[in-house]
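Table 4 source record.
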Amino acid sequence: MSTAAVGIFVRTPGWSATKKRLAKQIGGYAATCAYELSLDCMVEIAQNLVSRDIDVYWAVAEEEARRDPYWIATGLPTIFTGSGGGLGNRLSRIYNRLLKRADIAVLLGSDIPQLTCEQLKPAIWKAEEELVVGPANDGGFYMFAGTRPIPRRLWNSVEYSTCHTLEQLITALNSPVVKVEVQPDFDDLASLAEVVEAMPAQPSQTQLEFIDYAKELLGRDDQLLRLGSARNQR
């Protein structure tokens, strides 16, 4: 059994709609391009984790897309998140499957292109002793890691995609939780600006490509970039 296994929750471009709120602002094609560039950054993180003996899986939303050329090209295995039942059921399925394959199960979002392996790896090892969450700016979470089973009813007791999601999850867990660094994820132009501002001081080439495209989108309104900077300095 592996020490740690990471499941990155993804949607497959071309199979289902991605970033619907962002798409309403800039159009479906541009939103998909932004998401694809974010996925490229997540591939980079995943491959870095694998090189450090951490197993990584794509938790794919569409069962038929598990053999899509994009995922095959990454060289990483896929797991179907399951259909129906809402996000709580999907989180529960992947978390429990990862715990059967490793001592530490890690759930990770796919819209945090600013994240680095150096930030993520310490958080994973903290989960050897306690539950670990990565809070998102919007009240949700971009990462969850643990070593013990969690009942499905607990995952389903949380209202997702609200400013109280993480608060509800921690209350439901009713046990000590370690919070790591707060990070933005992007769902619209305002949060995309926050992600740009949260990029590392020395971004990788893949991250630079994301930054360039995001700034092209945000260039329509420089005020959004200033807003992202202000929010990340809180």
